[in-house]
Write a structure and sequence with these properties.
The chain is α+β, with helices and mostly antiparallel strands. The protein has 2 helices and 7 strands. The protein has helices at about 15-35, 45; strands spanning about 55, 60-65, 75-80, 85-90, 110-115, 125-130, 135-140. Strand 1 (about 55) and strand 2 (about 60-65) form a beta hairpin.
């Protein structure tokens, strides 16, 4: 039996209560699986998954990188409502009719990730690209959200 030491997740502008609950749920799944084996995992948990997401920012833009392997770009939806970016879609099970699964560990089903951005975004210049299972969304900051240099004058 493995003992996993509790790790406090770093707080960031992008973490939400839902994200923290999802992380706790994943940790509990790992504990039960290491204790009782993979037979403990039900098909219900295999049909729910949440893609891993990294968010970066610099003075000009936010960059969101999500892992969505095994999907076509047409199966991924991206929307921006106010300051909330939502990535959603559905990864279909690849079972073939008549096949009997010997072991199933890959997650499938619908997913949705919503991230609240801490400042306004220029919606006209948002771009998304997808390659090799990695989705990258670049969200340029609105001019009013960018840092401004203020010149000090001598009086």
């Amino acid at each position: 039996m493995n003992i996993i030491r509790y790790q406090r997740y770093p707080q960031s502008d992008f973490s939400t209560a839902f994200d923290r609950l999802a992380n706790m749920h994943e940790e509990l799944d790992r504990v039960f699986e290491s204790t009782f084996g993979s037979s403990f995992r039900s098909l219900g948990t295999l049909s729910r998954w949440t893609p891993a997401v990294d968010v970066y920012q610099d003075k000009d833009q936010f960059t969101v990188v999500a892992e969505v392997p095994g999907m076509k770009k047409e199966e991924i939806d991206i929307s921006l409502h106010g300051d909330t970016l939502t990535i959603s879609g559905e990864r279909k099970s690849q079972e073939k009719e008549g096949d009997q699964g010997f072991r199933t560990e890959r997650f499938f089903g619908k997913f949705q990730r919503s991230l609240t951005l801490p400042s306004a975004v220029n919606t006209e210049k948002v771009k998304a690209s997808y390659k090799d299972g990695i989705l990258e969304v670049v969200l340029p900051k609105a001019d009013e959200a960018k840092p401004k240099q203020i010149e000090v004058s001598l009086s």
